[in-house]
Amino acid sequence: MRTVPAARTATRYGTWSSPWVRAEHSFRELVPSWSATTPRGTLVQVDVRVRLQTGRTSSWDRLARWASGRLRGFHPTSSGAQRDDVARVAVDTVRTGRAAARWQLRATLYRRASIDRSPVVASVGATTSPRAPSRVPTSRPGPARGEAVQVPPYSQMTHRGHYPRWDGGGNAWCSPSSVAMLLSSWGSGPTRGQLGWIPAGHRDPAVDHAARMSYDYRYRGTGNWSFSAAYAGTFGLDAFVVRLESMRAAERYIARGIPLVLSIAFDAGELDGSPLTSTDGHLLVLRAFTRTGRPIVNDPAAAHNRGVRRIYSRAQLEEAWLTASAGTAYVTRPRRVALPQ
Asked: Which of 82, 83, 229, 301 has its CA 20 to 30 A from that of 60?
């Protein structure tokens, strides 16, 4: 499918810029999140700039043009590598050459001139962190020992070969499978009508829907962290990307009944019991802890739904998570459910 720049299909309707936000600590990476409703014929563009501790400010860099509805000639895309002497964009992450202190986001609304509907941005924000460490200590078990959140098991592998134009299921669909599990755990997700285009024989069709609606046409994959959170947010949930410093910090969410999607990577022999021998990037759902603090996950890489539930070594999973993605996680919750302090 051909991607046409939004300026050729829609006109700018309005722009909002955040104030400069001072990060709690200096950072080298930033991942944005937004929650928006985009009626058919509309879209949202998200831009960012950062300010180094030296006071030097980057240019405005475009992160994405995104829509949950349809706009002729347009497909949601990240914006490709953009590099200046301060920062560069890598799909869903802004990386700085030196330590940064502040960030600013901008949302621009587009709509076709022939319609009177407008996109609505409910929230826009970002999470910041240093670069991922090479080694991490194992955190002590904390407040979620013995706690569990009920999350249905969805295997990405049962979708192997589904919709090659959206990455073809199987190994490529860990993120949409994980997001679909989160939505289902809250009793949310696409309606039967929204799933009507999926053949009746496809098991767990919500996974197919998540893959289609979170697919990044420039990156050519379904693993864009920001797009995955934005998709979850279209169902009225508060959804965003966060970076946490330890498994103990993740426990605070489980203790509040909020499951998380973790972004991990590991080499052979580094995650015992995994259905994968190794991976450069994988996502799974953290949903519980044993009484001794071992994490219980729904790992969509299992061959079938019945094998999705896994218990991993706390030390191994924490290392695979923090060293791979600096503790990147998706948070999705109804607004009535309080976030941990």
From this structure: 229
